[in-house]
């Protein structure tokens, strides 16, 4: 039986002992300062809890962003705040159950074949089963290939476009139509939508909100993970049932963070700068990897370069990169069993920080790689 892939903590330890400075390409957090906001504390915050559903200012800003960016008009009661997208993802199945939104016999959360681990973790937290949806050769989901016995037990379908880790763009309209046909709530993780390199950013709301939720992140669009603010929106009947359950559990973003988030959602210029920086980093990293013999795949979107490992062993390559060159990447097996032949590079640093270690990026041993292209 195969053991699990090495953890990020294990790889960080290996990198620290490599004799090289740590080069962390494992997380989708750009190595840039966050943008300034107008949300600093005035020193006169009300002595009370911030609204769990989000302040009116934040909800209006989120609705304004969706209207401005995607042409989608949502009522204020169809938008609510969360304490970061990951918090929402990890707790959604639990609150669907507590809100009475689980039809009889629906006990399975559908997740992408390769995906962010929080989807599976959230289902497990709520006591639901998970099933990885088949995908085509371009990593796009094919729920039409699900066994009927699985389809008929599906509670919700997680979609992530652009995909973490593969960078694929999903056929959102097709997936939403499938969900409505079979009574499966479609939940679209749109954290990386502003990092769409092929075409314009997309949302699952393009064909209406019935039976659809989407979650957005300030961590990615605005490079502000420290705020711990995001928002979810969509079908008002679902949002309205989730809000009181989340409030009762004490889930809320801080008042100052909500004000900062509202400011950032209303400002497109900082997001444009971050987009251009990200596009350059992704393209540069793909070129560097391929020049050194690595089988890198140019993503359609997102911060990540999904790369086939030499010899088909992503775990071994991740350990080798960390132990020999101080480079920390994520082994593909962390995103699903079919990812074990790959690693995920995060294009979060300028290429000048990476080129000196280009010798470690290709399929040859370290002594031969030192003369490779940089």
Helical segment count: 12
CATH architecture group name of the largest domain = 3-Layer(aba) Sandwich
**Relative strand content:** 5-15%
**CATH fold annotation of the largest domain:** Aspartate Aminotransferase, domain 2
So what's the CATH class of the largest domain? Answer: Alpha Beta
InterPro entries: Aminotransferase_I/II_large, LL-DAP_aminotransferase, PyrdxlP-dep_Trfase, PyrdxlP-dep_Trfase_major, PyrdxlP-dep_Trfase_small
Keywords: Aminotransferase, Transferase
Protein name: Succinyldiaminopimelate transaminase
Pfam families: Aminotran_1_2
Strand and helix layout:
Blueprint: H1 8-16, E1 23-24, H2 56-70, E2 79-82, H3 85-98, E3 108-112, H4 118-125, E4 129-133, H5 148-151, E5 154-160, H6 172-182, E6 185-189, E7 212-217, H7 218-221, E8 230-234, H8 236-248, H9 255-265, H10 269-291, E9 295-297, E10 304-308, H11 314-325, E11 327-328, E12 330-331, E13 342-346, H12 366-369
Main attributes of the structure:
single chain; 374 residues; alpha/beta; Aspartate Aminotransferase, domain 1; Aspartate Aminotransferase, domain 2; 2 domains; 7-stranded mixed sheet; 4-stranded antiparallel sheet; 12 helices; 13 strands
Précis, in short:
It contains 12 helices and 13 strands. It is an alpha/beta fold.
What does this structure look like?
By secondary structure, the protein is an alpha/beta fold. It folds into two domains: 8-33 and 270-369, Aspartate Aminotransferase, domain 1, CATH 3.90.1150.10; 56-266, Type I PLP-dependent aspartate aminotransferase-like (Major domain) (Aspartate Aminotransferase, domain 2, 3-Layer(aba) Sandwich). It contains twelve helices and 13 strands. Strands 2-8-7-6-5-3-4 form a seven-stranded mixed β-sheet. Strands 9-10-13-12 form a four-stranded antiparallel β-sheet. α2 packs parallel to α9 (255-265). The radius of gyration is 21 Å and the shape is globular. Residues 39-43 and 364-374 have low confidence and may be disordered.
């Amino acid at each position: 039986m195969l053991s699990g892939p090495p953890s990020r903590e294990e790889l960080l330890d290996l990198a620290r002992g490599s004799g090289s400075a740590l080069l962390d390409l494992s997380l989708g957090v750009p190595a840039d300062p966050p943008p300034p906001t107008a949300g600093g504390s005035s020193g006169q915050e009300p002595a009370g809890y911030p609204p769990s559903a989000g302040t009116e200012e934040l909800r209006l800003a989120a609705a304004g962003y969706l209207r401005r960016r995607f042409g989608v008009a949502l009522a204020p009661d169809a938008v609510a705040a969360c304490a970061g997208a990951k918090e929402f993802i990890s707790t959604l199945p639990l609150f669907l159950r507590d809100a009475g939104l689980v039809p009889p016999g629906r006990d399975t959360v559908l997740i992408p074949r390769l995906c962010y681990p929080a989807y599976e973790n959230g289902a497990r937290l709520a006591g639901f089963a998970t099933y990885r949806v088949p995908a085509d050769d371009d990593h796009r989901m094919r729920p039409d290939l699900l066994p009927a016995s699985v389809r008929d037990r599906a509670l919700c379908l997680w979609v992530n476009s652009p995909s973490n880790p593969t960078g694929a763009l999903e056929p959102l309209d097709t997936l939403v139509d499938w969900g409505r046909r079979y009574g499966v709530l479609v939940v679209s993780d749109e954290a990386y939508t502003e990092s769409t390199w092929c075409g314009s950013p997309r949302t699952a709301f393009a064909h209406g909100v019935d039976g659809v939720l989407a979650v957005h992140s300030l961590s990615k669009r605005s490079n502000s993970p420290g705020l711990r603010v995001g928002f979810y929106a969509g079908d008002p009947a679902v949002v309205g049932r989730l809000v009181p359950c989340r409030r009762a559990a004490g889930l809320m973003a801080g008042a100052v963070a909500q004000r900062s988030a509202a400011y950032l959602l209303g400002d497109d210029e900082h997001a444009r700068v971050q987009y251009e920086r990200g596009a350059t980093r992704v393209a540069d990293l793909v070129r560097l990897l391929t020049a050194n013999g690595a089988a890198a795949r140019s993503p359609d979107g997102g911060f990540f370069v999904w790369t086939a490992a030499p010899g088909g062993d992503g775990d071994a390559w991740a350990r080798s990169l960390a132990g020999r060159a101080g480079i920390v990447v994520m082994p593909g097996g962390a995103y699903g069993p079919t990812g074990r032949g790959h690693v995920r590079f995060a294009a979060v640093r300028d290429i000048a920080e990476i080129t000196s270690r280009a010798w470690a990026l290709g399929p040859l041993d370290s002594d031969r790689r030192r003369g490779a292209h940089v």
